[in-house]
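Here is an idea for our session: we take a single protein and study its fold together. Once you have written the record down, we can walk along the chain together.
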Amino acid sequence: YMNMKKIVLMSIILLMTDHLGAHIIDDLSNPNDRNWVYFTDTVMGGVSKGNLEFKEDKDESYYRLTGFVNTDNNGGFIQFATGVSGVPDKKYQGIRIKVRGNNENYELHIRTRLTPAPWQYYSYKFYATNEWETIELPLESFIKSNFYQPKSFKATNIRSIGIVAIGKDFDAEIDLARIELY
């Protein structure tokens, strides 16, 4: 009887676990498996500069994007992005990220198979404090970049995800330790 109580209690705890049913995009358990690409507004004539590094400290492995976002020459972004594939056909509510930054606003950009042009994406603005935080970004709250894109998208249509420092002149520093669909 006591063992049955333990089993029931453990089952309830597992069901309440935050990450149950999540689809991990990158938890940095094997950073060589994930191809994150760094790029800036220089692809369109901008002058922003930055860098992407993989870092480890005693408690955490993470990617760090640093640089200066400069809006001169119609620019204004630095970012790192990765391709996404193999998302199970399941109704996900959003994207969960574990980040810390320099107390600035950043954006997460999603590209789908219906947003092939570089200026087409869905975005969600979030604030990155200087402490590690897990932030949930509901898919229904992402904003489309162009009027002719569909208003919403399914998680199975996501083709890439990027962390972006954008929109104003500022020094960027943001760390990403985990990203998943929930």
About this structure: Helices lie at 2-16.
